């Protein structure tokens, strides 16, 4: 598998297509909530199959008030269960460290708390609703 920072229009389009399939089509999030103003300034990551080049996963990284804000982590359904979410998250965390961030934060869908906990994130605060899906804010030192 290959994780890269999506810089070309084609790679960015692949990131957005993955998000549309996962969040809009599978989870029922409205497209205008999924694609937001932060996409223009975010660093987008794309995981491709190393042999076929097929786009399989994506995530984005933002500077939000001096914190590394990670979001829009998505793996296509047929590729789940193969550790791809872990791979792309490790690449995002490495880039956040490289950029000099000391802390990362994300809003995790409640069912995904154990996944992010394995990466060192801890929940904080109360559960909240985002786009009709229960979430927790999670944080970790880098």
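Sequence proposed for the structure above (142 residues):
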């Amino acid at each position: 598998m290959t994780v890269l920072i999506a810089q070309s229009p084609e790679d960015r389009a692949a990131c957005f297509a993955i998000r549309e399939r996962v969040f809009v089509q599978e989870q029922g999030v409205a497209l205008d909530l999924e694609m937001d103003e932060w996409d223009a300034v975010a660093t987008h990551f794309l995981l491709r199959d190393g042999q076929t080049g097929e786009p399989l996963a994506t995530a984005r990284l933002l500077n939000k008030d001096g914190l590394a804000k990670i979001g829009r982590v998505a793996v296509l359904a047929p590729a789940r269960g193969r550790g791809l979410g872990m791979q792309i998250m490790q690449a995002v965390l490495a880039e956040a460290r490289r950029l000099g961030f000391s802390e990362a934060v994300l809003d995790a869908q409640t069912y995904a708390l154990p996944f992010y906990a394995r990466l060192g994130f801890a929940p904080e605060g109360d559960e909240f609703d985002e786009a009709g899906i229960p979430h927790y804010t999670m944080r970790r030192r880098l």
